[in-house]
Amino acid sequence: MSKEILLVVEAVSNEKGVTEDIIFEALELALATATKKRYEDEVELRVAMDKETGEYETFRRWEVVPDDTEMEFPEAQMTLSDANEKDAALEVGSFYEIPVESMEYGRIGAQTSKQVIVQKIREAERAQVVDAYRSKVGELVSGQVKKVSREAVIVDLGNNAEAVLPREEWIPREMFRVGDRLRALLKEIRPEARGPQLALSRTSSEMLVKLFSLEVPEISDGVIEILASARDPGSRAKIAVKTNDGRIDPVGSCVGMRGSRVQAVSSELASERIDVVPWDDNIAQLAINAMSPAEVVKIIVDEETRSMDIAVAEENLAQAIGRGGQNVKLASELTGWELNIMTEEQAEEKHLQEAGSIVERFMEQLDVSEEVAVVLVEENFTTLEEIAYVPIEEMTAIEGFDDEIVEELRNRAKNALMTMELASEEELGDTEPAEDLLNMDGMDTRLAYQLVGMGIVTMEDLAEQAIDDLIDIEDMTEERAGQLIMTARAPWFEEESEEPESE
Fold first, then answer.
1. Whole-model pTM?
2. Within 10 Å of residue 180's Cβ, how many Cβ atoms?
């Protein structure tokens, strides 16, 4: 019988293209499963097969567990004390084994092994397929629809490879039938209970980029780059393109003769409308390009909040916003900035309000007349720091501002900034560190007062900080900052672990 086993292993291995080790593993598992039927209780068995001769032995085994463990499977577990009486070398987690009578590889063994082998082969084949596609994650793949359900589409990629296109990755209103050809982006390899699963997407922005790479040779050759993309799947999309070759029009190349290239991509994406705009390193100009086809009249950039106020003519307001805010949403995604769309009148009103508050602040902080404050605002000065530290020539270029006036304004701005800083320090100067912060493990008095200067007064304040917030403190290391924060957070975990008292 041992020779027959070896022949079976060799034949199945050659036919299915899986290693003999996998077949032997399946046979061992099958024989162990069949032998278990001899026992009334839930025992644990192991079969060891000689891969040279086909002979095999069967062992009953017990897992060694700590002495105080409440055993779930007493027929397959043994306490450490009992195990050490049999073999002093056994430890928790190891197994105590004794040989038992092996089952003959007859009709029952063959039946069981067939089921196990089939399953093992499927798992091995799936693993081989996944390994073959692992390097293709982020690339386009094509296949034929094999099965359609409410939750997903199963796609046959060929060579025993199957992938799943989940419902949430379909383009809205898209319909599939068995036998349809389908192209999608291999988004990821998902771990599943039955083995890894190839997962597809047709809504990813990356799919849009890959389709253009197929249709536009200049992109695949690296002459044109797609630097940003945004999609509302099935409805509208925008891409920003750039080239370093002055002889090439990147937008025209992507659109193609009579729109042939962009139309080919659009057809693949259920007639999704695609705007191709030129990339610009100037973020304001990029935003203007991204708002196409709406024309921008005025734009104000706020770098601190990464937002822009974009003014358009009133008759173009609806076009700029788009249906359901679609145009401005895609433009925001393309630029990575928040875009606020408004009419020229609204922009002017907002500008006047902001300018008025800045004028009042300059009049108070610099002790200047309204006329001087208005001139500063008209020259785009918005903060005291700008007045105090911009190059002198920028201010002397202002009509009516000579060297003496500029010097005086700069000194007043610096004095105002210093006064504000001192006031802030005085506000915290009378504050003492809380007792819990001062007495916390790892804390010293000097550090506690440094933290108070940063507005961190209690342990709770410290618990809410991140390592980056503390790293600028003198002699502070990342390790110490992390330890201090975790010590301050310790009460949080104690509260969570406390059980509510029963009434």
1. 0.59
2. 13
